[in-house]
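INTERNAL AUDIT FORM
Audit reference: QA-55
Scope: verify that the stored structure record matches its stored sequence.
Auditor: D.O.
Record contents follow.
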Amino acid sequence: MKSKVRQGSLGSQMPGRQLMLAILALLLLCPVVSATAQETIPLTDGSSLDVYLLRPAETTDQPSPLLILMGGGSGNRAISRDTSMWLGSGFSRRGWMVAVPVSPNGRAFRGPANNALIPLLIEALQARDSVASGKTLLAGISNGGLSALEIARRDPEAYLGVVAVPAVSSSVFDNRKLAGFPVYLRIGGNDELGWAQRFDETVSVMREAGVELDAALLDNAPHMFRMDWTTLEPWLDQVLEQ
């Protein structure tokens, strides 16, 4: 078991309007170079999901690793679109195929029914020649981070790891299923929702469960913060090598 807990120097779910304003503010700070396309993806259970897709910024003949990135709040269309442009574009510039699904019922991807849609989405996307087969990376912002952890707990062997920026956990959740599983966790030190006060608890329960945790509380950062790629990019390289 490995567990990193660091102090950074970068800031229940955030209301949708507040979350969108925070994402828009971050978009002004982060250059966007990848085009976002919306598609409706048919699933094998007969349903479908609206998804924002970002292809890797550089053209390649090799299939790209897949990232399922979930937005915060309700996971509605506007939040998912803005999440794809802000955080998704950073991944696509680094060679990932990024899919940001829109919640079908305004409840993010929390709960068993919504959790179960993500493996079906992965199956549909990996049927494409441009998408690599095998394990997929999960990521989420706020409520999307909670969704990513829920989905990973259902079948950790199917995933490379989780990027939770932010998320929280407690003893209510059975994190033992994530023993040896890589999680990159960041929470803002000035989180408006009080999540900074839950950082120590979250780290403690994950460490006790054996999670392979890379965690930091970011000094002076709010609930939504600019990504620190100097720490995230090496973590991504490591999980791809596993």
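Auditor finding: record pair retrieved intact. The chain is about 35% helix and 25% strand.
Action required: none
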